[in-house]
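Bump. Still looking for Allantoate structure tokens.
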Amino acid sequence: MEQEKVSSVTPPVTDIEKDAQHHVDPKLKKHAHDADEAMKAMEELHGETITIDEATNKRLLRIIDWHLMPIMCFVYGMNYLDKTTLSYASVMGLKPDLDLKGDEYQWLGSLFYFGYLAWEYPTNRLLQRLPLGKYSAACILIWGLILSCFAAVENYSGAIAIRFFLGVFEASVTPGFALLTSQWYTKDEQGARVNIWFSFNGWGQVLGGLVAYGIAVGSEKHGSAIEPWKSVFLFAGLLTLLLGAIFVWIIPDNQLNAWWLKKEDRVLAVARVKVNQQGIGNKHFKLYQVKEALLDPMTWAFFFYAIIADIPNGGVTNFFNQLITSFGFTEQQSLLYGVPGGAVEVIALLLNGYMGDKFQQRILCSLGGLVCAIVGMVLIVALPLSNNVGRLIGYYMTQASPTPFVALLSMISSNVAGYTKKTTVAAFYLIGYCAGNIIGPQTFRPEDSPRYVSAEITIIVCWGVCLILLGCIWLWYKKENNRKAKIRANPEYVRLENQG
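Sorry for the wait, here they are.
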């Protein structure tokens, strides 16, 4: 059996047994409203069996891809660009204009994640309780508006407020997109799609670097009515608002209210993901699923991985322009030379998604990006200061580091059954992500400028620990898959009706 093909954060047999109890318990039969939306759609067929041939499945997948993936990709690219505008602005006059002193810039980097952290679990509950498409769209529009308001900030206090609330409203994006992916795609399709939309972080860095460089050079040559760094925030904020409006129009709450699908295709779109055994959405909170998530060792393995892996992410995201200037390049050059780093991330994630799906080994395939990143950071630390090109190449190599993070995110999307449980595990994973990103900027201490050697060594150690954690996660899944294969091979094992 292929590792991860049938893996789950909680052993599926346990989930099946619990679901069986909930289906046959006479008390719970009275509460038909508690069924998943997919079950309700199937009940409307009055027992009619749906068979989807390969041609129909490909046609549906093509329609779904063309409507969902472009807008999800562009919005996720802005999700990254909106966070990193602070890094561009740091070398475009933000610090003197806001009179930032000491470690105040570091705290601006961290404060985004305080907002993200504070709202992460509530937003996951709202993603379950409220219409998924509409709530996600509302958050996108509000965060675009907030980011635009950064152009009006005149002091440190105002910047604190903007960064905090930007984190609050961006907290819904990653878990919301993971839910959308699990809702519309089969398990075999999800890994590649998560890597595709996450790869637009890299495209966001490419776009941001080019726009920031263009604004900086244009302002220097022709002058500007406002400070160049304010133009960067306005550009990113207004573009986010435009994409949010398109998101409202295109993204439905589920297959059953997708205006761009014919009525008969809506039911087929539900039926094609029946193989996931996860449904398409349930608005009712189930305490037993929360308990199951809290008792699952993989929930905590994912949580601790996210903390440790995102300490480097939080530092590099907010300091990559200053890191490049420390190699001996000018501030304007740092805006332009950061662009290839985004391209490296795009290539690494697309390759990661393809290889993971091809070999059905998402964790093992994702290790390549992390090893590449470790080698890159070692080059930055070890190469002579005079070798600025070699150290810049080392920085580019570090941008392959998100591959394991995305692999685990796709596993939450595809492997965690139960809507309450899925949102709980996602919340814990992203709470760890926030905690790591809060710590990360603090490792780049002002007294270490411009080299930041202690931060660079911290990053190498964190990524080394991540390799060990990923090995443990892979071994756990391998053991669980073998155990579940034996259970399914037992002659007494019986699949429940409508288990999917």
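The two ends are 20 Å apart (CA to CA).

Edit: fixed formatting.
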